[in-house]
Known about the structure:
This protein is of the alpha+beta class. It has two domains: about 5-100, Ubiquitin-associated (UBA) domain (Helicase, Ruva Protein, domain 3); about 105-165 and about 205-245, Tetrahydropterin Synthase, Chain A. It has helices at about 5-20, 55-65, 65-75, 80-100, 130-135, 135-150, 165-175, 185-200, 220-230, and strands at about 25-30, 30-35, 35, 40, 45, 50, 105-115, 120-125, 210, 215-220, 235-245. The strands form five sheets. A three-stranded antiparallel sheet has the order 7-8-11. It has a two-stranded antiparallel ribbon with strand order 1-6. Helix 2 crosses helix 3 and helix 2 packs parallel to helix 4. The chain is globular, with a radius of gyration of 26 Å. The termini are far apart. Associates with the EF-Tu.GDP complex and induces the exchange of GDP to GTP. It remains bound to the aminoacyl-tRNA.EF-Tu.GTP complex up to the GTP hydrolysis stage on the ribosome. One of its GO terms (molecular function) is translation elongation factor activity. Keywords: Elongation factor, Protein biosynthesis, Signal. Pfam families: EF_TS.
Amino acid sequence: xxxxxxxxxxxxxxxxxxxxxxxxxxxxxxxxxxxxxxxxxxxxxxxxxxxxxxxxxxxxxxxxxxxxxxxxxxxxxxxxxxxxxxxxxxxxxxxxxxxxxxxxxxxxxxxxxxxxxxxxxxxxxxxxxxxxxxxxxxxxxxxxxxxxxxxxxxxxxxxxxxxxxxxxxxxxxxxxxxxxxxxxxxxxxxxxxxxxxxxxxxxxxxxxxxxxxxxxxxxxxxxxxxxxxxxxxxxxxxxxxxxxxxxxxxxxxx
Length: 254
């Protein structure tokens, strides 16, 4: 007869096999583990988690993660879709950070013309290889970024790195001279000025904006989710906004 220890050893390969060969209708995982008490082994305790295949597919469609990663996340979260999504998102963001230093010199230039043809956007989105640049998912991201820029008229720069220091210095001088700050201690003034300038900067930075299709996600997080999905570094290089008559705004009327 097999001992409890033998059963525990056999259980783990069976669990791995169940993960790989789950039926088309559901994945039933029954890991067995043993506990020891006072030098004795207790009987195996079965812990079952039934994950519907449709749920796994839904999570994969929502996150872009692999099937095995989706199954594992759902099992770890007892089938809770929101918790599993959060686990995969954090995993994807961590993966994106590791790839951020890699060169991204391929990509596409995407355009978006808003209804009525009064507003147009042109944006360059880069990746590492031409293979990824041609994938529908990458082009989908580029289109989403172009539409995001069209929906955010205050946005002028991709990220803080592109922000001109001259503008920051000028805004600090203007805010420091505000009437409501006069007579306050220097340290308080500096703290308030910094907060106001940072708030004004965020309104002009593309990567800081809430994604228009999911306000719980920033544009930066959106891009990183595609880095995790496609396995390459992705960067938004630059963009231009065109409005009918916009180039004439500063010219004197005749």
